From TrEMBL:
Name of this chain's protein: Adenosylhomocysteinase
Organism the protein comes from: Dictyobacter kobayashii
NCBIfam families: ahcY (TIGR00936), PRK05476.2-3 (NF004005)
Entry similarity comment: Belongs to the adenosylhomocysteinase family.
GO molecular function, one term: adenosylhomocysteinase activity
The protein's required cofactors: NAD(+)
SMART domains in UniProt: AdoHcyase, AdoHcyase_NAD
Catalytic activity as recorded in UniProt: S-adenosyl-L-homocysteine + H2O = L-homocysteine + adenosine
Binding positions (NAD(+)): 148-150, 213-218, 234, 290-292
EC number: 3.13.2.1
Amino acid sequence: MSYDIRDLALAERGQQRIDWAARHMPVLRQVRDEFAAAKPFQGRRIAASLHITTETAVLLYALQAGGAELALCASNPLSTRDDVCAALVARGIAVYAQYGEDLPTYQRHLEQTLAIQPHLVMDDGADLIAALHNRPGDNTVLAGIEETTTGVVRVRAMADQKVLRFPVVAVNDTPTKRYFDNRYGTGQNTIDGILRATNVLLAGATFVVAGYGWCGRGIAMRARGMGARVIVSEINATRALEAIMDGFQVLPMHEAAPLGDIFVTATGMAGVIRREHFLTMKDGAILANSGHFDIEVDTAGLRDLAVGEAQLREHMTEFELPHQRKVYLLGQGRLIGQAAAEASPAAIMDLSFADQALSTRYLLEAYQQLDPKVYDVPSEIDERVAALKLRALGVQLDTLNQDQLAYQHSWQMGTV
């Protein structure tokens, strides 16, 4: 087995941290037990490009228990945990990733991961799927899974342009992922990343959130909970109206820029905060991105504009702008909850990764009946994941009695 990681000697420490995460992932533990008994992936090869965290390792162990041969690379150069990579390699999983790797190394690792000629690909951001489609003649892939909003947008564009070669399940769009991972997980890890990078006080600060999708909702909620005054910017009228009714001020970015102390992008769109915004920001404004790619804050434009640059803390770069004002970019403009923190808590990723694991089994059973398009997670998988989580929490649900079931399927009963 080949691999390219930082230091295999970190394996024991990595496994200890993985074991801690696994304690908080009871749904995935049940799925792993099922896979270990049934071996649904025996003889199948799976290539994955994911954030290499302790929680991701728990997912990969479940797939490995089901018989899969696995190869893994990073989906973000700053989200890789080197000790987790070592633990995975020690367990027989080929890993090609190192924290902070440069772009050529990142691209080489994508190619090394695809060298196993996978039957299925698991992606977070669609870099692996895009790389695969740039390789002529690769036809071993039967299906794929995409985990995040940005990646789903890319894969849907491929499907719309009729270049997608195989069916892809959009795990991001299923309720047990979107409502919890995006809102509660991203909400918490974004704030965590900002605090670790800066140690600033949020109480009393003006906190600008670009985008009020599920991630933006979670970030705004957590920032307000820590005492910040939150402003939201949006391009969608319905989401803007929702933000207002949730109690937030809504302003276009050019009006929010002079007011904000801390800015977070969560849109999936490029160039959300740009040169004209930097020029009107307060001295000391902090910039962070919670979207998948480092494109939402125009870092190239910021560097062109700056007259000086300094690395003040591990995940914080100071840019001196004209007129002796300074702004601070966190995590190189990359996903701040992964770059400076530890990603979403294990209890949240338990849901998302159970969706991924069960969708993987579904695809390998159903791919022959699926066209090369983007599909939702089957509702029965989503509902089962939610039910397993509630059972693990010791929560019971009401059930409908016979009269209620009859009413549900009747039309005669009404006002008269």
